[in-house]
Amino acid sequence: MATTLHDTVMAHPAGRRLLLLHFLLAGCLFAYVIAGVDPAPGRPGVRARLVWIGVAVTAHAVISQLMYGGFRVDVHAPVPEVRGGAEIMYYDGDIAELLLAAALVATWRPRGRARPSAEGPPARAAAPV
Fold it and tell me: Fewest C-beta atoms under 10 Å: which of 3, 27, 53, 75?
């Protein structure tokens, strides 16, 4: 079911800016939930967050391929512009999401392992003489 909401929003400069702001804030919120400062209350575990990144990569890939092929797309824009947007979404979106996954994995500290101290290993007690 197609609506005219996209065309209405894009017809007005303020609507276009609000739509871009919406996309920016949604991306920032997603990045915070996935790899924001720990600990955050109610945040899922690392494995679950990696699964959500995988879901996002898959969804964006499918949507961009549908856009590129013109399937179920009712955007009143020239075909080359729609295809260009689909290409940006496909390639650049994957890069951004894979970098987000790398940031998450790079900062992952499995439970039960203590972080190494900056002072080095603990000092040993002198053996009794």
Answer: 3
Contact 13, 22 (CB under 8 A): no
Q: Quick check: helix, strand or coil at residue 35?
A: helix
pLDDT at 68 over 50: yes
Q: What is the DSSP letter of 129?
A: -
For the segment 83-100, the average pLDDT, to the nearest whole number, is: 90
What SS3 class is residue 58? Answer: helix
- Which residue shows structure tokens 């013109």? 70
The residue type at 50: L
Q: Is the dihedral of CA 53, 57, 62, 66 positive or negative?
A: positive
What's the CA gap between 46 and 105, in Å, rounded? Answer: 8
Instruction: Report how far Cα 51 is from the mean position of its chain's Cα atoms.
Output: 12
